């Protein structure tokens, strides 16, 4: 009997690519920063102008990622793009910093923001130690979910 190999298709569709780019470029900053923008501008109209300009800049950044992704057909995103231009030490340093600092910090910020909004949404007032405890638990759950169910992340993101 011959062994059958299962080949995993590492391709995403247009909708998955668009949701990934929007999530990567815009991220959760849109949920974290509104109050600080409103406080700094001290005007609702000016804060809307700031958000529109920031949205246009994010759109331009996403177009850059789309162009890179369609031009350089190698797996690895930023690492592959830096390797394509022969910047191997920069690519290595970029990925080390990303894996050790940037990605865990991003997940921590997402988890903390999500937990704070959930608590506010249900009118739950917690002591700061309790809120930190639940935020840490939510962070751990998010990390476990992300690593165990990575192939389903596009469905969750949509």
From TrEMBL:
User: Transmembrane segments in this chain: where?
Assistant: 12-32, 44-66, 87-105
The record's annotation in InterPro entries points to: AA/rel_permease1, AminoAcid_Transporter
Keyword Transmembrane assigned to the entry: answer is yes
The annotated topology with respect to the bilayer is: Multi-pass membrane protein
* Coiled coil location: none
Q: Where in the cell is it found?
A: Membrane
The record's Pfam families line, in alphabetical order, gives: AA_permease_2
What keywords is this UniProt entry annotated with?
Answer: Membrane, Transmembrane, Transmembrane helix
Query: GO CC terms on record?
Result: membrane
Q: Which PANTHER family does this UniProt record tie to the protein?
A: AMINO ACID TRANSPORTER, AMINO ACID TRANSPORTER PROTEIN 6
This chain belongs to the protein called Uncharacterized protein
The taxonomy runs:
Eukaryota, Metazoa, Ecdysozoa, Nematoda, Chromadorea
